[in-house]
């Protein structure tokens, strides 16, 4: 039997994990300067958590969740996104009582969605996201957006487009909802079956439908921007002002509605405008969710956050031709000839590693020439050669691969010698 990775998943091999680690490092550094702290929540949660927070009418809940019943007959779901878990944890751990509000958290880890596989769309993917919970200040909206932009810029991306919109508060959304229902009801037969169920529950989602996106009724639908009340307009203006002050360019798109039910006020997406990037150009999506904490049993605690996948970030870097740092190579490769030399070599190897030097040796009893080839392939900076003669004299042959200089040196001194050479070199 031949086993393969499950559809929509991938193995990330060492040449790629090296890139992942660099991106993860950038993420940690950016979150650190903005004072966002990492939170780690379980990979699965009670199914109902996602139904309640993400929303019953969303694609995620309707078709994309990996849901299973465990041996105790509980319905659990592999998390499809991160906000629900963070908000659950915020409430469960009473973070609303922390003296410093908002609570600023970030997460990074695998998410699971049963989707059609295509470039940039996987069934298991890694999302990095932040949540700032406990403040309704438009300045924090601009901070969260700025943080996402900083990650992309630090990763070397320049072909970016930030699109923002306001979804208003509950009052404007409900007036807009009525208008949408009136607009779509006479023609609902032209729409897909999902849209038919969305019509009464959440007609805003029709605007976001992937099947019916070309129907002219979508373009002619009443725009939410005409339903924003004074407070919502003022809030949106303030967010824009903070973005401008921070020198962050943006476009307003009145048709931007995010997929999840829980958003209000600020919604945003960041796209790649790089030509080399495929059909899916959205790198990051986020927005404000003022009622969510209450919705699942917490106190009033307005929040805002975003999520981006590392997979799409790496694809965008590739499309823009961003170069990665070169992976560090070996400091030392130990070449040995014969049984006694092998034992002496293993001892030196252990001393090298204890001193923090990247070192390795041969474990397949190859001849000297093959071992030297390995040292070349692994781009070792130094090679230590040990044969019977060296063992007898308690010395090693140390070769500097850059200068090709070679010297006999006592076993006791070789580690210090290499550390010294590395410091100078
Ligand atoms: P899309 O419209 O592309 O399906 P979405 O609205 O479902 O996106 P969100 O739930 O907002 O996406 O997730 C935020 C980000 O997570 C996306 O902008 C994208 O970078 C990433 N993402 C979402 N789904 C996937 C996936 N299946 N594979 C890889 N990355 C994904
Ligand atoms: Mg999706």
UniProtKB/TrEMBL annotation:
What protein name is recorded for this chain?
A: Histidine--tRNA ligase
Q: Signal peptide location in the record?
A: none
Enzyme class at the top of the EC tree:
ligase
Question: Where would I find the Aminoacyl-transfer RNA synthetases class-II family profile domain in this sequence?
Answer: 20-328
Instruction: Tell me the protein family, please.
Output: Belongs to the class-II aminoacyl-tRNA synthetase family.
Q: Which organism is it from?
A: Sporosarcina pasteurii
Q: Which CDD domains match?
A: HisRS-like_core (cd00773), HisRS_anticodon (cd00859)
Alphabetically sorted, this entry's keywords are:
Aminoacyl-tRNA synthetase, ATP-binding, Cytoplasm, Ligase, Nucleotide-binding, Protein biosynthesis
Annotated TM spans: none
């Amino acid at each position: 039997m031949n086993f393969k990775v499950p559809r929509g998943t991938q193995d990330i091999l060492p040449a790629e994990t090296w890139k992942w680690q660099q991106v993860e490092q950038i993420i940690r550094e950016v979150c650190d300067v903005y004072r966002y702290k990492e939170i780690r929540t379980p990979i699965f949660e009670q199914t109902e958590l996602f139904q309640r927070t993400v929303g019953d009418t969303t694609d995620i809940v309707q078709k994309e969740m990996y849901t299973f019943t465990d041996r105790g007959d509980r319905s659990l779901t592999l998390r499809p996104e991160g906000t629900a878990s963070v908000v659950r944890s915020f409430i469960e751990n009473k973070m609303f009582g922390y003296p410093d509000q908002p609570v600023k958290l970030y997460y990074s880890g695998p998410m699971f969605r049963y989707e059609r596989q295509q470039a940039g769309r996987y069934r298991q993917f890694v999302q990095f996201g932040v949540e700032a919970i406990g403040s309704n200040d438009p300045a924090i909206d601009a901070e969260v957006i700025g943080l996402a932009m900083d990650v992309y810029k630090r990763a070397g991306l320049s072909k970016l487009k930030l699109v923002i919109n306001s979804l208003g508060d509950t009052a404007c959304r409900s007036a807009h909802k009525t208008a949408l229902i009136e607009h779509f009801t006479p023609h609902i037969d032209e729409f897909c079956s999902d849209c038919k169920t969305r019509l009464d529950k959440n007609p805003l989602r029709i605007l976001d439908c992937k099947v019916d996106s070309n129907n002219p009724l979508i373009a002619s639908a009443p725009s939410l921007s005409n339903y924003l009340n004074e407070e919502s307009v003022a809030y949106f203006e303030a967010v824009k002002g903070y973005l401008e002050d921070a020198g962050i360019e943006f476009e307003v798109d009145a048709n931007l509605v995010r997929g999840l039910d829980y958003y209000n006020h600020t919604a945003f997406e960041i796209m790649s405008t790089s030509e080399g990037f495929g059909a899916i150009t959205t790198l990051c999506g986020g927005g404000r969710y003022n009622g969510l904490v209450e919705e699942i049993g917490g106190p009033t605690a307005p929040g805002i956050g975003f999520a981006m996948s590392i997979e799409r970030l790496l694809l965008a870097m590739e499309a823009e031709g961003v170069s990665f740092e070169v992976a560090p190579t070996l400091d030392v490769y130990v070449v040995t000839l014969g049984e006694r030399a092998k034992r002496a070599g293993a001892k030196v190897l252990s001393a090298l590693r204890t001193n923090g030097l990247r070192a390795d040796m041969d474990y397949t009893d190859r001849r000297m020439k093959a071992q030297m080839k390995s040292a070349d392939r692994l781009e070792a900076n130094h090679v230590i050669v040990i044969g019977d003669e060296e063992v007898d004299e308690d010395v090693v042959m140390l070769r500097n691969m850059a200068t090709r200089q070679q010297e006999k040196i006592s076993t006791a001194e070789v580690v210090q010698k290499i550390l010294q050479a590395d410091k100078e070199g």
